[in-house]
Amino acid sequence: MMHQKFIKVLDYIEANLDGELDINQLCHVAHLSKYHFHRQCSTYFGMPVASLVRLLRLKRAGYQLAFRNEMKVVDIALNAGFESHEAFSRAFKKYFSLTPTNFRNKPDWTQWHIKYDDIIAVRRRCQTTSLMPNIDIVSFEETLIATIEHRGDPRLVGNSIRRFIDWRRENNLPPSSSKTFNLIYSDPNLVCDDEYQLDIGCAINLPVQDNAHGVVTKRIPAGECAVLRHVGSDDTLGASVNFLYETWLADSSYQLRDFPIFLERVRFFPEVAEREMVTDIYLPITK
Q1: pLDDT in tens, the chain (287 residues)
Q2: Residue 282 forms beta bridges with which residues?
Q3: Domains of the chain: which residue ranges?
Q4: Which residues pair with 186 in a beta bridge?
Q5: What whole-number distance in Å separates Cα of residue 235 and Cα of residue 95?
Q6: Whose CA is closest to 270, among 114, 89, 69?
Q7: In what residue span(s) does the HTH araC/xylS-type domain sit (predicted)?
Q8: How many other C-beta atoms can be found within 10 angstroms of the C-beta atom of residue 109?
Q9: What is the b/e burial string over 203-212, where b = at least 16 CB atoms within 10 angstroms of the residue's CB?
Q10: What's the DSSP call for residue 276?
């Protein structure tokens, strides 16, 4: 029962991250007296509610700084609930040891992940598995894709994403007109950092020409796939992937095809809130 209270609190915070988060309303959501709310939330989340809100807002700000160059720093600061550029800069540097401008120019993803590990723990603690995911079987058509191959530390994927975004912009291939894919070759929880492999890609009509970004042409082959739609943050994506492999596949009459599991990014952060992200997980299968 208490677990459900805090799931509702986290959902409410994420749904209202742009506005004022009134303590009385949070107490109402949790059905807790304000005399006990802070202590119980801090115990469950592992941090005060104010720190949780600040980290969630700063994560979005960090993504906007790193991946949305068209956004002004002052606008990012206001979106994060700060009254001024200066206040935002002080808070950002306190958490991530870089000013917003320095982070935009050269993100330090290692420091970022050290701070953000606490949020991952909160999300996983609040994750619910009470509903059985719906799995569809689809016939996937062969798709030509342009990809950047990320090899190495999964905490540095952000650097590869930046390079790929730059290439997409240069080639006028925004997500609105070119589907976004990830090919997942390894589980970061099961391999050493230097063995991690991930491709970041998008659909294209013609092979990629030689370029300075390291983007190459690949194909997702045609064939049957089991598809699970994951709604929410990537922090809990692993549980959905594991469900496909460990539960659904074991209970099905299908076998795996010789191609890695892949993702289609339908709606992604920071364009939408993390709780509103939509990722279709494709597991290549055969009878």
Answers
A1: 567 778 888 888 888 888 888 888 888 888 888 778 888 888 888 888 888 888 899 999 999 999 999 999 999 999 888 888 899 999 999 988 999 999 999 998 988 888 888 888 888 777 765 556 899 999 999 999 999 999 999 999 999 999 999 999 999 999 999 999 999 999 988 999 999 999 999 999 999 999 999 999 999 999 999 999 999 999 889 989 999 999 999 999 999 999 999 999 999 999 998 989 999 999 999 99
A2: 227, 262
A3: 2-126, 135-286
A4: none
A5: 20
A6: 69
A7: 7-106
A8: 19
A9: bbeeebeeee
A10: G
Where residue 60 falls (left for φ over 0; alpha for ψ -120 to 50; beta otherwise) is alpha
Q: 2-126 adopts what CATH topology?
A: Arc Repressor Mutant, subunit A (1.10.10)
Nearest to 17 by CA among 278, 277, 272, 279: 272
Tokens of 119: 């949020």
β-strand pairing of 216-220 with 262-267? unpaired
Q: Are 208 and 216 in contact (CB under 8 A)?
A: yes
Q: Which residue has the tokens 């939330």?
A: 41
pTM of structure: 0.90
Distance CA 45, CA 35 (A): 17
Residues 6+ apart with CB under 8 A from 258: 284
Q: Which CATH superfamily is domain 135-286 in?
A: Regulatory factor, effector binding domain (3.20.80.10)
The packing angle between helices 109-126 and 2-15, to 10°, is 130
Measured in residues, the chain has a length of: 287
Residue 149, SS3?
strand
Q: Which residue has the tokens 């920071």?
A: 270
